[in-house]
Amino acid sequence: MLKLKNINRKFGDFSLSEINLDITEGEYYVLLGRSGSGKTLLLELIAGLSIPDSGEIWINNQNVTGKKIQERSVGLVFQDYSIFPNMTVFGNIAYPLHSRKMKKEVITGKVNRIAGEMNISNILDRFTQNLSGGELQRVALARTLVNSPRLLLLDEPLASIDASLKDDLKRTFRQLNRNGLTIIHVTHDYREAVSLAGRVGVIHNGHIIQEGTPEKVFNEPVNRFVARYAGIRNFFRVKFFRENAFWKAVCNGNFVFNIAGNGFPAEGLIILKSSDIKIVTSEPVERFDNSFRGTVLEINPSEYGMEVTVDAGETFYACLPIDEFKLLQIRESSTVWITFSRSSAIALPGSG
Amino acid sequence: MNNNLFSWILLILSSLVLLFILAPLAGMFLDTGSSEFMQTVGDKEVQDSIWLTLWVSFAATFVFAFASIPLAWILARKNFPLKQVVQGVIDLPVVLPHTAAGIAVLGFISRDGFLGKTADALGLTLVNNPAGIALAMAFVSVPFLINSARDGFATVPERLEKAALTLGASPSRVFFTISLPLAWRSVMTGFVMMFARGMSEFGAVVIVAYHPTIAPVLIYERFSSFGLKYARPASVLFIIVALAVFILLRLISLKKKEIHLSPDAEA
Hints:
The complex is a heterodimer.
Chain A: E1 2-11, E2 14-23, E3 28-32, H1 39-47, E4 54-59, E5 62-63, E6 74-77, H2 89-99, H3 104-117, H4 133-145, E7 151-155, H5 163-178, E8 182-187, H6 190-196, E9 199-204, E10 207-212, H7 214-219, H8 224-229, E11 234-243, E12 246-251, E13 255-259, E14 267-272, E15 278-280, E16 290-302, E17 305-311, E18 315-320, H9 322-328, E19 335-340, E20 346-349
Parallel strand pairs in A: 3-8, 3-9, 6-7, 7-8
Antiparallel strand pairs in A: 1-2, 1-4, 4-5, 9-10, 11-12, 11-14, 12-13, 14-20, 15-19, 16-17, 16-19, 17-18
Chain B: H1 3-31, H2 34-41, H3 44-77, H4 83-95, H5 98-109, H6 114-121, H7 130-155, H8 158-166, H9 171-182, H10 184-199, H11 203-208, H12 215-226, H13 228-254
Helix pairs in contact in B: 2-13, 3-7, 3-10, 4-7, 5-7, 7-10, 8-9, 10-13, 12-13
């Protein structure tokens, strides 16, 4: 469906380099990256708003690198929606149809149908100044979809939407994808990737540094940057060593982790998901791969329950479901034991 | 200095500036007797010269707008080598002495000049002709239109133009349906300013065409031939007509609903 081959593009001090991407028909691909990582520029290259310095862009087996924007069958929804303020909602949605010089009755029919699908039929006569973020996003989507694009590019589509409306829009995106529309969705929020993506690409400083299914990328991040994106806060710079048949990692000379796997280099990182750390209030009787005594430093509510910060010689962040947290009856300065399995400690080679 | 005293000083200084502008005009109006004024209103020569001034200035603004508005868009949107030099060239007529501007235009449109020769070949004489007056007016006033329109285009978020392109619009359709309507207020302000500036031009026009006589030249001619008393009623009438047209154009151009534009989002 879409192939990017060795795309390079310099933009002031920033450059996209050696971007290769292969998106199949009907795929939902989420490009994850911080602001300034090059993700919007990449969308503009695909849409034709910017031309690469080198490399090729293929859409539906056609090389469109030098082709006009109008000949690419690509729809782009901008981060701030870019709704035309000098037109009504109807005028905005009809805009691409007028560009194709369609008849008035055809335009009216198409606009009414897409407005119905997007639940905005009631605001067609309104100017856009007083519309909510969710309504503007739906207008922008309707305006792009009425043109029947083969490929939909979404630039941070949920960034300015109230939390309560995000689920509605996510449902809409999923439905569009299920109906066969290929979608590339750019975001800085890994939760959007988890909930929507069939495949995720992580972009950093103009490079795609990891690609794969959300499970693969978030469970096996290639470096610290990707791990941070997966919401992982536990990082430990370590030296790897082998003791008998098992590999271990030592942090700051005396803090030893038992880890799974083999063949590690001399140095690297251990990362640990907050949700993989368990907390108990008495010394565990059964033997755990990793078990450390520590003191509770802080307790803060988090998205998935309560985040407990424990000083066990190194600082650990554990995330507990509310019910589990209540049962523990812990508070700041309580003595606790943290435990986690050998396989939860993800070892990354290099400095990350 | 306490706040109250400072406010009074500001008020007095501001009033003095306003008085400086209004007092001579008010004096001129008060010193003009109603019978002299009515006589001037009925004076065919005065009527013709005011009408000539209005329509020639309007025509100059209208014709030059066709090339100047696209140029303003280019200056707002595109980066190219020597852009600052081009911007300097556009501002040049504003800083030139207007008689010197008139000499420059005359050299260009006289029979020895490039445009004059071309016009001559087509059987048209530009010197002492409304077309020559229009060119002299446009020379000194076109920077007002270009600069105002350029500032207007610069406030239109570029991403709206990009969005229109991705929706299949051609660059010309984007210009006419997005850029121009959203910069309309500034473009029309520039249009009115160019028209008003052209209408009030004396220095450049008097060198290019003493006849047919535009209102500023007529007023000067009456003053130099007959004195202040004789020039005053024509001045008052011209000011009234010019103000009326100016206010009317402002009302028409600003009647369009104001559109609030948000700045470009981060790329």
